[in-house]
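Researcher: We're teaching a course module on how sequence relates to structure. For the next exercise, students receive a sequence and then see the predicted structure as tokens, so they can try to spot secondary structure elements on their own. Here is the exercise chain.
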Amino acid sequence: MSSPDRHPAVPDDQPAAATPLEAGDATALSSRRRRTHEHILAALSEHGALSRADLSRLTGLSRSAVGHAVGFLADAGHLTEDIPAGTGRTRGRRPTVVTLQRRPGVVLGIDFGHSHITAATATTSGTLLAEATTALDVDSRPQQALDAVTDLAAQALAQSGHTADQIKGIAAGIPGPLDIRTHVVRAPTILRDWIGLNPAQELSRRFGHPVAVANDADMGARGEHTFGAARGLEDFFYIKASHGIGAGLVLAGRTYRGSTGIAGEIGHTRLEGATNLCRCGNRGCLETVVSITEVRRELAHVLPAEPSTAAAAPPPPLADLATQPAAARVITDAGRTLGLVLADLVNCLNPAAIIIGGELSAAGAPLAEGVRDSINRYAQPASANAVTVTVSTLQRRSELLGAVATAIQHSAVG
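Model: And here is the predicted structure for the students to work with:
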């Protein structure tokens, strides 16, 4: 378990989201209206104070829909609408801005990786308090992984000086696609031992509290959008490059999940000439060539062998290896291969940024330079010139902080 120094995950002038609805309110509302309220709260969470016109532009909702939602949420105590300080006299109706109400309390964010689980506590205003983590084969041990989270949460709560009854919201990211219609894991080639499980339901039962669950790459995108390099951007890709490769796509300010929730599974794009067998059953998938496992295997061929006495020691940090010319070449080549797939997405969707996270992002500049090279070569010049490529600055916390941001958005009002 580690306990980070208490620090604001977002600046003090960046409001954190409040809950969409009280439990009693939810029963009285249609699912369409609930989604409208969630869009409003998500926009305020990520952009701060906004006018009604800004909310309409960012969410794509009509002015009347925004007006009804703002009125309802203000009455429920989730937000306020005021004339900002310093606004002078104007003709006609004076402009107002909508801001979220910060409520005291603590939220819990959970990150399920393929081989680890991390739980973190944070305040509802976005200050990270404590973390607890453990190594575990999440893919093949779903029940053990789900059970382990309660212990990790207890550790993080104790470290931060809080108790379970102070939790206002919980969210988790899992390393596989969820059917957004049923919230059940269905993809038969990814997290196959999780097939048929409803992680939100399973976690809610264990915690006795509603839990919001999403794909980890989508959570990573949310973390970057709220706390990281994508703040202020409306069109970007977050690439989680670890044991698998996944993309969180944010288009027009919203996470794009596709019709059933499987959008962004770029790790299973087939590469010409590649023949490695993939866990999905196909050969030549991107993640069989570009993943932390494969890159480290390639690095072992070009770096001096470690002494036999160090065989059980953890591998050297990727950031240190990337400073060595031979290793940097391997990492840059991996970036070029990843960029080959991303170039097609750049042509199709014209993002403003590509942010690379996950364990492989520790390689830093050589990885980003390789991606950039392929985009410059294979994407259309206008689209290539419009996109920036960078590695995450959240130090492998993008997914965890995305879960925290989601928990804050869905937190209950005290």
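Model: If you want an answer key for the exercise: The first strand starts at residue 7 and ends at 8. The chain has three domains: 17-88+95-100, 106-223+398-409, 231-391.
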